Amino acid sequence: PSRVFVFACIKEEEKEEEMAKDEKKNEWKEFFWNPRTREFCGRTASSWGLIFLFYLAFYIFLAGMFTLTMYVMLLTLDDNRPTYQDRLATPGMMIRPKGEDLEITYTKENTESWDMHVQALNRFLSPYNDTVQEQKNHVCTPDQYFIQEDSDSVRNNPKRSCQFKRSILEDCSGITDRYYGYNDGKPCIIIKLNRVIGMLPGKEGQAPTVSCAPKKYKISKDEWADDTDKMGEVAYFPRNGTFNLMYYPYYGKKAQVNYSQPLVAIKFLNITLNTEINVECKIIANNIRTDNERDKFAGRISFKLKINSRN
Predict the structure, then answer these.
(1) What is the pLDDT of residues 225-264, one digit of tens each?
(2) Euclidean distance between CA atoms 293 and 119, whole angstroms
(3) Sign of the Cα pseudo-torsion (35, 39, 40, 42, in order)
(4) What is the DSSP string of 164-217?
């Protein structure tokens, strides 16, 4: 009799477990869809409709606020000149050709080693061809700023640009010497200042110039050296390495479409061969600093030059 009682209890427990499982299944089914109350996920169709309308109106309001904010902000902007300009006090400087990591190394008897530098200079100077400059730009009065401000609400756009012909670079123009001196071991390096809108690089009519010299480098804890005896003589084009004032100020890419930034070329005339030379070029102007140790390219540029020779 005790065995029969135990068996009956086990059967009863199994039935209760099956009934509990069925109840849970029914609860889940009714949660997704209750045919008696016609509710989906616990809500009727009208309740879901109200929620949908609320979020629809909410997101339309957010989109409208965003659109209105952007529209008001765009009204304050000028397509031709930045309304708010946190411009650098000192423009950056760069060279052409750049070489690899500002290191220019080649063998003068090996055409393939320096031809890429010649091609880079040809591409860079092509917009400065005399015929192109004569067609697009104007002859300006030298040694004074070319001011083209707007007159009240009348926009002076597009603004004119002054001619900078590549022939100004003389021996480094690629016209008289199509190899820019690379085949003779007397290479040309072209220097440009980065464009800064509204910058006037010089006070009291003093035009900025470029000066290149051997860069000092550390050889021990308290000892420095440079390559003065190896760099040799340098020629500047235009003469004195001047950025003429007539090319400033710059008014921006849209306002001054044909702007040609001025260039200075340096030619190494008797550099020591088979020796790496550290060169530093700086902009010399009475309102431009070049002693910022945090920015190595502010108003200056350093590069390495090595010309190998098999002779």
Answers:
(1) 777 888 999 999 998 899 999 999 998 888 888 999 999 9
(2) 34
(3) negative
(4) --GGGGGGGSSSS-TTTTGGGT--EEEEEEPP-BT----STT---EEEEEEPPE
